[in-house]
């Protein structure tokens, strides 16, 4: 019989998000929307506890795009059960990308064997190296996922429930003529997107 400790020892957890801190952070908005922590109650001022108000843009730092982000009537984050964020077959594929370069179907086809049964597909481009050194570049020259790659993911990998990227947005932000088609394709199939992964 397995004990609770045996089960805990058999599970490994990997932190994949960036630390959220007060001040400027990449958000993909042309409006400056920093994380703000405002003290509301303080012990040193006679309050019974320390409490603060946290104000942030919902696409600030590592975050999840639920289907309703681009799909009318799609599920919201509140509609998703916590166990939908537990993955047993995560896969990281290496797709080195430059400024505004797109993940293509060919990039993924070359690694399809590794992706065959994955439930969480994470694309590591290496572009996240610019996050702490050149925030403007990281934000406005972010790579993206092409519509053809998005289609390939949802049509060929039925077990995928989430796709994560180590760049700011699933699609490039400088030229938005793509109409967020890759987002719509993936979210339209109920697959969530995790952006700005660490």
Structure description:
With 198 residues, the protein is α/β, with parallel strands linked by helices. Helices cover 20% and strands 18% of the residues. The chain has a five-stranded mixed β-sheet, with helices on one face. It is globular, with a radius of gyration of 19 Å. The model has no long low-confidence stretch (mean pLDDT 88).
Quick take:
28% of the residues are buried. The chain has 198 residues and is α/β, with parallel strands linked by helices.
Ordered list of secondary-structure elements with their pairings:
Layout lengths: L3 H7 L25 E6 L9 E5 L7 E3 L24 E5 L7 E2 L1 H5 L2 H4 L4 E5 L10 H6 L3 E2 L1 H10 L5 E4 L15 H8 L3 E4 L3
Parallel strand pairs: 4-6, 5-7, 6-8, 8-9
Antiparallel strand pairs: 1-2, 3-9
Which properties best describe this structure?
two-stranded antiparallel ribbon, alpha/beta, about 20% helix, five-stranded mixed β-sheet
Helix/strand-derived category reads: alpha/beta
Tell me roughly what share of residues is in helical segments: 10-25%
Main beta sheet strand tally, sense and closure: 5 strands, mixed
Global Rg: 19 Å
Low-confidence sequence ranges: none
Total E-strand runs: 9
Our measurement of the CA-to-CA distance between the termini, rounded to an integer number of angstroms, reads 37 Å
Globally, the shape reads: globular
Order of helical and strand elements: HEEEEEHHEHEHEHE
């Amino acid at each position: 019989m397995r004990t609770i400790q045996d089960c805990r020892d058999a599970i490994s957890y990997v932190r994949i998000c960036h630390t959220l801190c007060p001040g400027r952070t990449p958000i993909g908005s042309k409006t400056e929307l920093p994380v703000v922590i405002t003290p509301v109650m303080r012990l040193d001022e006679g309050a019974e506890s320390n409490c603060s108000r946290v104000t942030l843009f919902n696409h600030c730092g590592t975050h999840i795009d639920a289907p309703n982000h681009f799909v009318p009537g799609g599920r919201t984050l509140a509609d998703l059960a916590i166990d939908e964020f537990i993955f047993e077959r995560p896969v990281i594929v290496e797709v080195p990308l430059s400024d505004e370069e797109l993940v293509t179907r060919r990039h993924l086809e070359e690694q399809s064997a590794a992706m065959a049964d994955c439930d969480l597909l994470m694309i590591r481009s290496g572009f996240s190296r610019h996050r702490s050194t050149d925030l403007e570049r990281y934000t406005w020259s972010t790579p993206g996922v092409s519509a053809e790659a998005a289609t390939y993911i949802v049509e060929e990998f039925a077990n995928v429930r989430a796709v994560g990227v180590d760049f700011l947005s699933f699609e490039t932000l400088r030229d938005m003529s793509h109409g967020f088609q890759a987002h719509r394709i993936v979210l339209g199939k109920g697959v969530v997107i995790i952006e700005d992964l660490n």
